[in-house]
Amino acid sequence: MSHTGGQTTGGRIVEVEAYHGTEDPASHAFRGSTLRTAPMFLAGGTVYVYLSYGLHTCVNLVTGPVGNGQAVLIRALEPTIGLEVMAQRRNQTDPRLLTRGPGRVGQALGITRNLSGSQLGGMLELRPPTTALDPAQIVRGPRVGTTKAADNPWRFWLRDNRFVS
Q1: Structurally, how many domains does the chain consist of?
Q2: Which domain holds residue 61?
Q3: Cα 79 to Cα 98: distance, rounded to the nearest angstrom
Q4: How far is 131 from 138, CA to CA, in rounded Å?
Q5: 10: which strand partners?
Q6: In a domain, 119, yes or no
Q7: Which residues, 6+ apart, have CB-to-CB distance to 65 below 8 Å?
Q8: What is the pLDDT of residues 49-71, one digit of tens each?
Q9: Is residue 114 part of a domain?
Q10: pLDDT band for position 150 (cuts 50, 70, 90)
């Protein structure tokens, strides 16, 4: 859930990709800490935001210990809160296209790079699911949009969910 621009928006995470720090050639952390990637090397619960192709704001949650550089990219949400606000931010009325893909997630939630390095619980919060999830519903496969270590099965999504990218 995002609390930006005086608006609250959010949804259920339905697709993610894992990045395993300095040992993962597809990770931004692979070459070590830089000004841009420094948030990835902070403690788990840190938000790491970057621009893809200089346009699309992508939201990651740091998952590893300090200095490790591990993070999970939020690839898709099933929008549930503030759909009207998301539609305005995305200039889109089709709910499936509001948060289907990492750049759309960032735009729909009103995320900017200024959030990078902040901690979960402020402008961006993560809540536990309201209902239990059957592990059989979680599908695992190769990551999308990378040529390095692309065959690693570190993309996870909910089976048959219409909001998966």
Answers
A1: 1
A2: 2-158
A3: 7
A4: 15
A5: 81
A6: yes
A7: 43, 44
A8: 998 877 789 999 999 899 999 99
A9: yes
A10: confident
Domain assignment of residue 73, yes or no = yes
The answer to whether residue 165 is domain-embedded is no
pLDDT bin (cut points 50, 70, 90) of residue 5 is confident
What is the distance, to the nearest Å, from the Cα of residue 36 to the centroid of all Cα atoms in its chain?
Answer: 17
Supply the CATH number for residue 18's domain. 3.10.300.10
Q: Residue 65 is encoded by which pair of tokens? A: 């210990």
Rounded-to-10 torsion of CA 86, 87, 91, 97: 90
Distance of alpha carbon 67 from its chain centroid, rounded? 20
What's the length of the chain?
A: 165
Angle, alpha carbons 140-115-105 (nearest 5°): 40
Task: Return the bridge partners of 62, or none.
Answer: 71
Please give the angle made by the CA atoms of 121, 133 and 17, to the nearest 5 degrees: 60
pLDDT for 122-139, tens place per residue? Answer: 899 999 888 888 999 999
Strand (E) or helix (H) holding 106: helix 102-108
